[in-house]
Give the backbone structure.
Amino acid sequence: MGKSSKDKRDAYYRLAKEEGWRARSAYKLLQLDEEFNLFENVTRVVDLCAAPGSWSQVLSRVLIKGEKFGRAGWNEKQKDMRSYVLGLEKEKPVQMDAAEEFEKNKPREGVRIVSIDLQPMSPLEGVTMLRADITHPSTIPLLLKALDPDTFDPNATSAPHPVDLVISDGAPDVTGLHDLDIYVQSQLLWAALNLALCVLKPGGKFVAKIFRGKDVDLLFAQLKIVFERVKVAKPRSSRASSIEAFVVCEGFCPPPGFKATLDTPLGAGSQLPTPENPPAKTEMSRKVRGDGAIEIDLGDEEEGDEGDVEEAGLRWIAPFLACGDLSAYDSDATYHLPKDRISLDPVQPPTAPPYKRALEMRKLAGGAYGKTKGQE
Amino acid sequence: MSELTSSSRSILYSAHLLWETHDKILVAAGTAFGEIVLWSWIRQPHCRSFSRVHSVFLGHEGSIFGVRISSNVALKSRKKPQRLLSSCSDDRTIRVWDISSITDNDRAAPTLDETHDANRKQHTGFSNALVDTTSTSSDCLAIGWGHLSRVWSVDFLDPTYSPEGVFLLSSGEDATSRMWEIIPRDETLRTAAAAPAFSLKLIDTAAYNNGKNIWSSTISKFFLNHQRLISGAADGKIIVCSPYFLPQSNNRIMKPSIQEYSVQDIESMALDFADGATTLQTNPTDNPAFKSEFFRSYTFLDSKSFLLTTNSGKIYLETIGLDPQCFQNNTITESVLVDQMDDLKGYSVCTAEASIGIAFVAGSRGSIYVYQKATSVLSKLYSIRSKVGSMFVAKTFTETGAASLVLLITLMRGREARLLYIDLDQSEPTVSAEMDIVLSELLTGLAVTSIAYVPTTWEGGYILAGFRRGSIATYKILRGDTDSKDERKRKAYAISTIERVHGKETVTAIQWVPSRFFSMNGYIISVGRDGYSAVHYLDLSTNCTTLVHNLSLPVGPSIEGLYFHKNQIVVYGFSSTKFILYNSTSEEEVMSVETGGAHRTWAFEYFSSHEGGGTVVWTRASTMRILSQVGPNHHVIRPGGHGREIKAMAVSTTKVNEQSRHLIATGAEDTDIKVFEYVGGDVVYRRTLRKHTTGIQHLQWSDSGQYLFSSGGCEEFYIWRVRQLPSPLGIGVVCESIFTPESEHSDLRIMSFDVRKRQNVEFGFIFTMAFSDSHVGIYSYDATATVKWQTLAIGNYFTSCLTQSVFLSSSTILTAGTDGHSAIWSLPSDLDRPHASAPLLASTLTWKYPVRIHQNSSKTLASHPLDQETVLIVSGGDDSSLALLLASTSSSESAYAHPPTIIVRAHASAITACAILLFRSRVFILTSGNDQWIRLWEIIVHNTSTLGEGQDLLEIKRVKRMKTNVADVSSMAILEQGDKRTKVVICGVGMEVVRIAWD
Ligand SMILES: C[S@@+](CC[C@H](N)C(=O)[O-])C[C@H]1O[C@@H](n2cnc3c(N)ncnc32)[C@H](O)[C@@H]1O
């Protein structure tokens, strides 16, 4: 697809190019932050599955450069840019320099950002980048070393200086086989959680991509064991047609005596030890909203009598939150753009696909590629 | 049972275990980042068992999706049997690795895991040529390129069944299964020293599944020594076929290559045959005038013999050696020179009625010869005073039940065509009557390209003629008239013409299906070079024709013929470089022959036997080529559906002769719409409607079931007329009208729409459509008006995408969108006004009463009137909540009868499908979503007067839940509503019918 047709379909893709983000995903993190104030008092962060690095860009700009993207600052100042991107305004707003654009804030002290991905990433100021598989056991010591390069102890399984926030935007290359995709996604979530359990400080936050598909309620129930508050949030920049969402877990509270280990990594089918006093069940409740609408929560369900043996697991439905301002762009809408719009190049060219060589071979072979010699 | 663990614990996409000896298991595993780890587990007597890693193979440039360890195989040029490992990947390659040395020598083999895996030095990310220096490993024995996308699986074929080589089977995302042979690499081509020593040669490709992704394939050996390939894909279809190279009955059979015969070959075969018998006196072919001897035409006399004519005027009879044991045949076993005619020199055409073995040959001077297979006699039949353009034959019967023929002869640029009645009950065929058919340059053009004969009495009937310009004309023929002295009476003029049956393209074949024998009405089935198959209903007594079916075929576009086989319609023609025989009823390919494209000189004859198949003969590069195939190239074990996920579905239930008839229409991401019928507890495939170019967004039936409406992206909105036709025609579908896009670039998606029948018009509808740029439109369609479409009103919401729009009454609609709000719009009062030729300006709609029903998108919405004044609206959101609205329609202005009631945490995921169900005067709601639960809720609408303090008008209860196997549920609908149980159809990735039992 040409970049201008993608431009038309996707307001966030256009905006990312205008604002210099490596990927449109940046807005997902910004919108999550808008709702949850994720970076408050945060200095040490781990960004998992980070390539091409737009989340790391956000971290670097917020923590190192001290820029502010909060609710207050951002929306107002971005209004002009928005109407330009939405095609309402023909003139591109004059680019203000960074000092004017964002409320200057003092860079934070003792910032440490470590980003990990299978793919290599272009460097970013102040960010330590690792190329590794987050599901691989060797990644834990790698991460611990990157967090505390000076005091690293190869035998440690937890960080001497734990981190405040672990974020993971990990997604497999979807195969189209639903059960497999959901399984791999949940494996990535477990791997991210396993790393988080090693490095997160009590009270810390964990944000991870999750597929709201089959058995997602089993995952919610497990997360609820190690965090005080678990919500599932969907930024408006995430398409309505996609099953992707983010779990935002706050108040890390490892069960007493629990230690994450390398030898028994968590994975799909894992169960965290159930704490002595299990989280209270949500009771049925009724609330009349300001606009008069009646909101009913029928409460947690009794475990079903479906009698499925494989079902030996707790299910829990996390409360849902849509984040990002309603007046923000709608990733599903079609916008009318002026005809003479110039399409910008992406900030980062996409990484070469694994089948690059196959494409080259195909070009070489011409029409004969992939064909058995005909019956003639 | 005890757990064996690997020391490498990263995520794996693939693994294979081989129990090598009683105490040893070999394990191969592929990682997400392109490594293949080979390790083993060994149990030692009196000792703890242990495992160790032998080798890590690098080279693949993407995740490993499949690995397989071979049994010991014999590679050419290697002395000892080898143990091999095969792998396939995201990088679209198949690779083979030599692991013999590792498994040969256990003790000496190096162990890689002396240090703990957690301390590995090599990074665990993707290798990248820009960053890494070394990435290939020399253990790679061979690389296979050929798949067009990701390769999901690879396997070795059992060497005991394929003794003459080492073969692999792979299948992948490109919906193909491919067969490979490991062959030594051509040393001269080895450039780099590190290049693999062998190569993987692609030897056969099977592509009989639709859409994408063969998830599973295997070679079965259970068919009496005949190995078969079985594959299943995302379309849900399971097929079986016999790749040619697999040994059948322990003999490896070579793939039959198409045989080529030059004119000289045919000539010398005929001479050999004539040897001993009296040789016909023929002019030598070295006659200077016919230096360029070549094949002129072919026509089949029956399923195993055909006549051919050459440029020098020779007629040969060729017999094909058909071995019923053999899947494909290609040899001519007998060639006989029938005759040589002066007036066939330089030009000849021929045609035949293969069912009775009679052929006609004509030349440039107008002589028509007839050849009878039964008597082997060629005789002159008739003479016409001009060069014959083409001939068409049709079979009919005489009063005595004997077969007779009609032959239509067109002349080069002739304005009249000669029609002959040919009696066959004499000792030789004779012309019993003749007349002229007058062609109209203006109406149809002069080039007749196909005919069908419609007998209506013993004395005569009608000729249906198809033309190059795309039309079909009807001519009335009376045998009595043909003897008339009156010149004018001996001429037949077109009594009616159906224009543009195949657009402006050639009508290549016509079949007549009468309602009864000698009936004056029936159906014309035709195919053409536009790639369509069309059916017209024709009433000869009134001369009325109605187009009742017109759909494009997935093969072609050069469709050249059609016939019936086992009550199914089979078509054939050319698709790019291939000749294709295709069952259009079951939508399965029967035969596919690489002919190098469409040709001028060719002929095809089908086998009427149970298995089907046929023979195709064609000229390419001046040689005659031939291929005969018995039976289809694959069999369907389980029929399938869409190649991708279903995005929309609608059910129509109508009563036909007191019987309920359920049609399910599904629209998918693959842009197809399919119609299924629910009969006897089975969902049976009926039709595929191919016209949309984008994924389907919404589908709806008219109440009568006569119309289906569909919408998609690019402002595609189609009106389909659907009819039940008699067997073998099945369901007739015609795209009756196309909505004309209104926006400048017509790039909007029509997310949803709703339909109301127009008052006082039989085939008229009013639509409300929701567009992705936040506007709604109200349109009127009248099939009988001169101006079919009128835009009644347009309204703008905001900038967010609208996802729903439904009629609440004749004067109001409700919309909902990605911003989580619903709104009500009142409509102008004169929606049902007749279409004017000068349309009135569309009125502007405005919205009122916005209500926040979700935090973000409404993904599914259903509405149902509860009584005269209230409509229940149910919306399922991406926010996993269920919203209930009670709209009152009592006044002309709609408003809500109750504040919205929202049930949060109704599902663990987005709610993507819902249906309202009234049962024993209670109201139930069914919902489903990506969490693959189906939930049943009951809604109790309390009486306002008896409402207690703090009690809501609407009460909702969970009734029950059950699981569905359908992922990404997009839609559901009530199929059958019984006293004891309700059947519900659920669509998404696949389709499922679930039963709710009421107690
Ligand atoms: C949606 S992208 C992340 C985008 C990123 N947050 C940004 O803002 O630029 C998902 C990433 O997950 C990575 N990934 C998938 N599986 C992984 C694994 N096992 N270990 C590490 N990274 C993985 C992929 O390489 C991909 O770059």
